Known about the structure:
The chain is of the alpha/beta class. The protein has a domain at 24-84 and 154-241: P-loop containing nucleotide triphosphate hydrolases (Rossmann fold). Helices cover 37% and strands 17% of the residues. It contains nine helices and ten strands. The chain has a six-stranded mixed beta sheet with strand order 4-7-8-1-9-10, with helices on both faces. Strands 2-3 form a two-stranded antiparallel ribbon.
Amino acid sequence: GCMQSGPPPPVLDGIQLTLPAGKVTALVGPSGGGKTTAAHLIARFHDVDVTSAGGVTLDGLDLRQISPTWLRREVVGLVTQEPVLLSGTVSDNIAYGRPGASAAAVEAAARAANAHGFIQDLPNGYDTELREGGGLSVGQRQRIAIARALLKDPKVLVMDEPTSALDSESEKSVQQALDRLAAGRTTLVVAHRLSTVRNSDQIAVLHGGRVVERGTHDELLARGGEYAAMVSANERYESLRS
Length: 242
């Protein structure tokens, strides 16, 4: 057979999506549909190809005109499924996005992230040295990452699969912390677990790099399309698990 070479097809194709200010938008859809790519564009881990007509704008400004470092430091907060902790104290980790934050501010963020309790149980509390997150569960690391984002207080929040690696007990605690973090903030959530997106202000279903449906949970259920099919498949799966 002959080999076809040439540029790979775009991961996102003709996608039109507006994230309303102060609201939560959830991206759902099959793996490989472009959800994580969309999230990465907002934090400028990827850029829209200059040769394409597309672009990502923030308050009307093309993100490609903004320094990625400044964008991630000043504007965008990121919570991912594999929280990155740095060598240093718990307190250093939480204050990473806001160096010089007071101990009271660090503790307030930890309380809001449901992290204060387990931090107090650590050998030296907030002064406990973390070595690349050693000794903490995924759920605990996740809550420290959420406390860090709360303290940073970003304008735009991008959450990529934040609860996918958690058991149901720590998922509840982390989900509650995430809800506090997203409240009143322009937020994009990439989700596999449909339980996490039910209360979003807007849900967009991405399939093959295109938005095939958008609306609230109830609107999309009533439409009986792809999202409704995902929800019923998910409910069958959950009932088998329980």
